[in-house]
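Suppose a colleague, Dr. K., hands you the sequence of a protein chain of 459 amino acids and asks what its three-dimensional shape might be. Before reaching for any lab equipment, you can write down a predicted structure in token form. Begin with the sequence itself:
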Amino acid sequence: MSMAQVMTPREIVSELDRYIVGQNDAKRAVAIALRNRWRRQNVPPELRDEIAPKNILMIGPTGVGKTEISRRLAKLAQAPFLKVEASKYTEVGYVGRDVESIIRDLVEVTVKMVREEERQRVALKAHEAAEERLLDILFPPPSKARRPVGITPEGNLQVAPGEDSHRDTREKLRKLLRGGHLNERDVELEVTAQSTPMVEVFTPQGMEEMGVNMKDLFSQIMPKKTKRRSVKIPEAMEILTQEEAARLVDMDQVAHDAIARAEQSGIVFIDEIDKIAGREAGRGGPDVSREGVQRDLLPIVEGTTVNTKYGSVRTDHILFVASGAFHISKPSDLIPEFQGRFPIRVELKALTREDFVRILTEPENALIKQYVALLKTEQVELSFSDDAILALAEIAAAVNARSENIGARRLHTVLERVLDELSFSAPELTERQVGIDAAYVHQRLDPIIKDEDLSRYIL
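The predicted structure, expressed as tokens, is then:
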């Protein structure tokens, strides 16, 4: 959590503002939660274990930025982060994934993160070792049996001068290698062939991970196959560096550090939480499974021990952020115990026409900027007038009001329809400067908007 250490909540919100329009309450909540992870690490040890994370429930219609906040939060946190959909899980006894696999997946993410950090740490040593191996391939050392050895007048053994000439030649070759003068040369390497054993492991419901672990075990037991490949010097250097880095990284220590980091800094974002909320009417059928998922999630969110192939993981200090549109159900439809695990609740507001204008232009990854960059690859300079952007925002807001409100995702549909003809014919265009104004937007969209049935299907 190195970035979170130096970023205040205000700075975190400012960073989120670069990509997400509005929703200040949600941004403030996640910023405080993220900063609290660092604060907890710095309190006295006897109090540290008593401070539990305050889980967050984000409530709001689809397409207003809930998932985008989670994506950006992951990059800011520089902590183990996993995003899952609650609707993918079922209670024990039903076909599907059990909720404990959430923690196993989080640990896998953490192991990859720590392993990559370790590889970066040993990168210099790995590069040096790979360079020596490559020089051995390009200019093999002389056989020890053939090295001429002399005796000095004092009776000491002395290697003949040929050894010095070999060392000099090797150093000259090293300079050529580092200077890139040998990049077009081919060398033969013996590389390990990645082979997955053709074994199908059948496991009971809810224990699918056991099958994956068994396959890993078989792949470790079976002898590794090697094959010779002819590659260019740069690719050979990369392959050898990866092999040396893998040899230098202590995987036992990686697993130990990964479990500690997942327990202390892990963040799990559970999307579509409203899909497992029961409804007051019609308690039968699949609602049994929905409530079962909530009951299974309870110990995970509150704090329990989950067994993974890297060791046992405690979930007491993992931060859970849940989100849902709650169109049909409402947060009070969640079972009371589950509601109590999410003390911080923030409501995200529906987007207005003014929000759409800002979404189209302000963020660093704004849709207008994306389309301009895409068409620039065809040497087409695309520009949007202010009235065109306003027209796009008005149409998106109007369609959302008339049919299903899908938030900012409506802008994707509207823009694709406006630029459909231009995107298709861009490679053959003779006019390289193309301007989009309000008249062009209305020309492309008005016929669809006037036919309400057509707009429901197309927009």
